[in-house]
Fold:
Amino acid sequence: MPETTILLTELRSNVLTILLNRPKVNAFNFELIAALQAAFKQAERDSQVRCVLLGGTGVAFSAGQDISEFRQAQNLSYRGHLQKNYNPLILQIRRLEKPVVAAINGAVSGAGLGIALACDLRIAAEDARFVVGFGGIGLVPDSAVSLLLPALIGLGRSLEFTFTNAPISTAQALEWGLVNRVVPTTALSEQAFAWAAQLARGPVHAMGLAKRTYNQAVLSNLEQVLDYEAHIQEIAGHAPEHREGVSAFLEKRPPDYLSNS
Structure:
């Protein structure tokens, strides 16, 4: 089989479109995270890029971290993994002084949710669904989810959907401010690009300064939160609940946390 390009990029009308392309559900492995970091570095350096549009191919935006690859890693430090991979990526997105739009199709969960929330604006297909995800395998929110999700939908809702791991529908997401727009699934690509191109024609320098101001006003503790998430995830990642959660996930069965606590 031919090798798949796991990240697709195109620069058109001053919009850099970045598509996650790792079938079936665009789960992140180390290669995909590194490629995405490189793409955002390109966006920062290239003056022709005036807006970034981030999406996913296929049936999902991203299911988050690839559990299978993660499990195969030897002597893995959860803290080290976050500090090397997801934390720098979240900071890149928030510090890029150009608009970043997430076009969300299908499911988005875990670290994928954190990346979507780190974007400035979100446009979702009608079939999109948002899952916090971490609790499903005995972990805690990372990738700035613990900061960005309550900032958008409130602490009580964030805790409910973290504890239950239930999906948030697009109707709820729109009502609560988790997304800015919801469009028909078949129109997502076209309407997301049109919105990004409109932003690219605007005063991007002023937008970047506004983004810097909002970061200072609302997310001034982002680095500290990312570091604390990594610390807490290291604790959760070595607990019996996580081992049981991963085993249950891979074996496609309900986890038995009562016997593994």
User: Anything to note?
Assistant: The chain has one domain: 1-185+203-261. The longest strand covers residues 7-12. The radius of gyration is 18 Å. The mean pLDDT is 93.
